[in-house]
């Protein structure tokens, strides 16, 4: 389906009513110094900047997993792996709690300033943890506090970037576009692993300071060049509302023309929770993200503890090898987005991936030690099925629900809904690494049993939605068959299901 033409330049906006959420449409200072360019070029810039921003967020989360072995060998008080788990849970607990407030603020504040400040603050917090190396600090309280602050500040990222992309992109291809865009998570994990492993030889503190510095620089770029709304750079929100109040098939019905008054107040958290599907997907993500983040924080350590082909690998080599899990995750996110667009069945796609993650996790643990080649193949397959639904739910599903028809176009909920879903998922992300720190002492069999059970529960959470989607797919297939002669599909017929956006 062809892209819609770029929207017309905006017209001056009338004064907003007292009840309207204040909106200030100002071009970012860096763009003011550049020649004007097209709407599609602006969309490309938005994708690129938000991709870079969240890749940096994830890159700055990788150092703890890379330095775990080094800390457990030579840096009190981390001789006990369970204490490393406590720093992980401090980060993730404050991240998940901060997420709910960050999403609510993201729908009310200037997203550019909010995201830029969050990135600079997060970069400083990551570097603060690394300062413990240079100051020879051995207090567990210091490191737990540093991770708690970092988690709180990092909660600014995800609701903001999803809301910005949702403001510029929508429609039937949202799953594929956001699936490709969501590769930033794996790209960030890969680059963070490589950077942290590369500078580890100079002291583990550098594995935090360097990613933290890059994060802060990314925040500066966002401040100067990111336009959160089309109106900020002189374009109307797209598409214009139709006379009947309906929207076009290509883009979101939640947008308004630049000449219209923006009367959409940000919804409250309780109203966002009541949107159909939000609680179900949030619960699913709790278990899906538990699995994904256990790999994020413990996979390099697991690789150093497992003889692969009869040999144990170094901390640096394990850090490099672990990035292949995220390579599989990139493929999984794109594949899940594409499939969900074609079927118009987000829940069915996510559930299918979670069920397929079960045999892949078992095979990775049972046969991954056979050889390095086998380990790499099974690791990538596991990453594909584990990260595919995680990516789909936190991007396209969150954007769909944030512009759900129940909001009737009069509320702004993208950041709030994204925060509810990902914040709930992050509670699972906090629990997984924390529990792993304890049960890994009894052997890795227990850890993988936990992961397999969580993948099963994640898929089962979506059973009700899957049933409804399958019934709808069958009904649409029957309708199409009955509307064409001899049951033959009409070449000019519409796609199976139009997107929910």
UniProtKB/TrEMBL annotation:
Its transmembrane ranges are: 41-59, 113-135, 141-169, 181-200, 206-227, 273-298, 318-338, 350-367, 373-393, 413-435, 447-466
Protein's cellular compartments: Membrane
How does the protein associate with the membrane? Multi-pass membrane protein
Here the segments flagged for biased composition (Pro residues) are: 1-12
- Which GO molecular function annotation, any one, does this entry have? transmembrane transporter activity
Query: GO CC terms for this protein?
Result: membrane
One of the Pfam families matching this protein, by short name? MFS_1
| Keyword terms | Membrane, Sugar transport, Transmembrane, Transmembrane helix, Transport
The UniProt similarity line reads: Belongs to the major facilitator superfamily. Organophosphate:Pi antiporter (OPA) (TC 2.A.1.4) family.
**Name recorded for this polypeptide:** Major facilitator superfamily (MFS) profile domain-containing protein
Q: Which organism is it from?
A: Triticum aestivum (Wheat)
Organism lineage reads as: Eukaryota, Viridiplantae, Streptophyta, Embryophyta, Tracheophyta
